[in-house]
Specification:
With about 375 residues, this protein is an alpha/beta fold. Helix content is about 50%, strand content about 10%.
């Protein structure tokens, strides 16, 4: 039996706490739930809450239905048009009855749609997924997260086997990058590259780079964000800083894109190495939330130190409290980053506090097209 929670002398109970206590007692009452489900004015609320609670219970089944569709390339198969269940089953090497179960489940989730008897086509969410290959890449890599979440309490207590997700992101285990190989960084670098086009569109629409001279992308991965910036601002000189093996991948990718003459690659770890100088705008795209507060403050301070007067820090990543659905982003990243072993999802206000700690005094939160995917902050010292 777990030890009882020690409760010292409680602070005075506020009016809002009293109200929430009354609400919680009411909602926990089975008799009230029966009454609310029967009373015409509260019946819609009761039904909505029941559906929300069911979604929480069934969420893993939903995600695994999506994972099965992605692993079987079902959306790609249906890109050309609807198919009979029997044909889909033969292609997937499973029984028609099993494929019908998958298609019915995917149809209920709007991933597929019925197109006649025993025939299915793309649903609105399945079609949308085809337009963003990064989503399918994220779904495929979730196998490591699901393995770590097999016993969520053990994960939270730090018990049990090694975390698979931490090995997927090996810089969580070796922050200097000294022991990382090309093979160990290839998977996560490819994942970030697959999901980068949408992120880059959102960030660069919120903050165009046409007024800048030189961009340094810290933690720039394979250079996908730099390539998008280069298309938007042809006059822009480019720089990339990342771990040595990742930087090697970026060098090849940017050379293939015809940008070798415009980009300077600097290998290193921001934990142990200084940042390159010379850029008047430095970007951190989906970097900060992967690291703990001390490391983030250290990184932001290094950025401020190398920026010239009126230089700009451009920060883009998912943030708490940015839009409808942000609670889901917070819940996802709280557990995901716990499995990874470092980092926290942060609100724009918390990021502002860390920026101020690092010496940035002018901090602006910009509006973005899809804040659920990425918020944008620009800062000057």
């Amino acid at each position: 039996m777990p030890a009882a929670i020690r409760r010292d002398a409680p602070p005075p109970i506020s009016l809002s706490d009293r109200w929430r206590g009354w609400r919680d007692a009411l909602l926990a009452s089975a008799s009230f739930q029966r009454w609310a489900a029967a009373f015409p004015l509260t019946r819609p609320i009761a039904r909505r809450r029941a559906a929300e609670l069911f979604d929480l219970c069934a969420g893993f089944v939903y995600s695994q239905t999506l994972a099965a569709c992605v692993q079987l390339d079902l959306f790609e198969t249906l890109r050309a048009g609807p198919c009979e269940v029997a044909a889909l089953a033969s292609h997937a090497a499973m029984s028609p009855d099993a494929m019908l179960s998958l298609c019915e489940a995917a149809s209920a989730l709007q991933l597929l749609e019925h197109r006649g008897m025993a025939r299915f086509g793309l649903g609105p969410l399945g079609a949308a997924l085809l337009g963003n290959p990064g989503i399918a890449a994220m779904v495929r890599h979730h196998a490591a997260l699901y393995a770590d979440l097999g016993d969520p309490v053990a994960l939270l207590r730090g018990q049990g086997r090694e975390r698979r997700l931490a090995h997927y992101w090996p810089y969580a285990l070796d922050q200097s990058g000294a022991t990382l190989t090309r093979d160990s960084v290839a998977s996560y670098t490819a994942l970030m590259a697959a999901s980068q086009p949408m992120i880059a569109d959102i960030v660069l629409a919120a903050y165009p780079l046409s007024g800048h001279r030189c961009l340094l992308d810290v933690g720039g991965g394979d250079g996908s964000f730099l390539a998008a910036a280069a298309r938007q601002a042809p006059q822009l000189a480019l720089g990339l800083f990342d771990l040595p093996e990742v930087a090697a991948i970026a060098r090849e990718r940017l050379a293939t894109a015809g940008l070798a003459d415009r980009v300077t690659i600097a290998p290193g770890s921001f934990y142990t190495d200084p940042l390159p100088t010379g850029a008047d705008v430095i970007s951190l795209i989906r970097v900060v939330h992967d690291h703990d507060d001390d490391a983030v403050t250290q990184l932001l301070t290094k950025v401020r130190t190398v920026l010239p007067e009126n230089g700009v820090l451009l920060l883009g990543e998912p943030m708490r409290d940015t839009a409808k659905g942000a609670d889901g982003v917070s819940a996802y990243f709280e557990i995901y980053l716990r499995a990874m072993g470092q980092g926290r999802p942060r609100s724009a206000q918390r990021l502002r506090e860390l920026l101020n700690l690092a010496g940035f005094s002018q901090v602006r939160v910009l509006r973005t097209r899809i804040p659920l995917i990425a918020g944008v902050i620009v800062a000057k010292s």
